[in-house]
Amino acid sequence: MQQSSDINETKTMFRSTGVVGLMTLLSRVLGLVRDIFFARLFGAFPIMDAFFVSFKIPNSFRRFFAEGAFSRAFIPVLSDYKENQDHAEVQELIDRTSGTLGVILFAITVVGIIAAPVIILIFAPGFFDDQASDMENR
């Protein structure tokens, strides 16, 4: 009976992995469609630059936390908990991790709001120089 349960759990895990992969692919395709649409709508003007910079910053954090080091570290721990702990302890791990990430996200957001000019200089060096140059040419 245990073997049947393990097979079902493996199938469920593969199905979940497939769903995540398909959703990631869909997200990439829709992102490309969005970029094409906005490039067609706004052209190569400063408003388009501001749009891309505004997406670059949160996407960097998403890549780090959702697709990067955090998920690579957390998923094995979660899998180990699912194998060796009962459901309540697994849920407690998820709850604590979610709560901690929420607090960290809040702190990063506050710092981001306060340090916005510096962050823009880091993620888009020369952004303001280009605008000043455009103003001089007019």
Automatic annotation (TrEMBL):
A molecular function GO annotation: lipid-linked peptidoglycan transporter activity
Keyword tags: Cell membrane, Cell shape, Membrane, Peptidoglycan synthesis, Transmembrane, Transmembrane helix
GO cellular component: plasma membrane
GO biological process, one term: regulation of cell shape
Chain segments annotated as transmembrane: 12-30, 36-55, 103-128
InterPro entries: Lipid_II_flippase_MurJ/MviN (IPR051050), MurJ (IPR004268)
Localization (cell): Cell membrane
Membrane topology: Multi-pass membrane protein
Protein's UniProt name: Polysaccharide biosynthesis protein C-terminal domain-containing protein
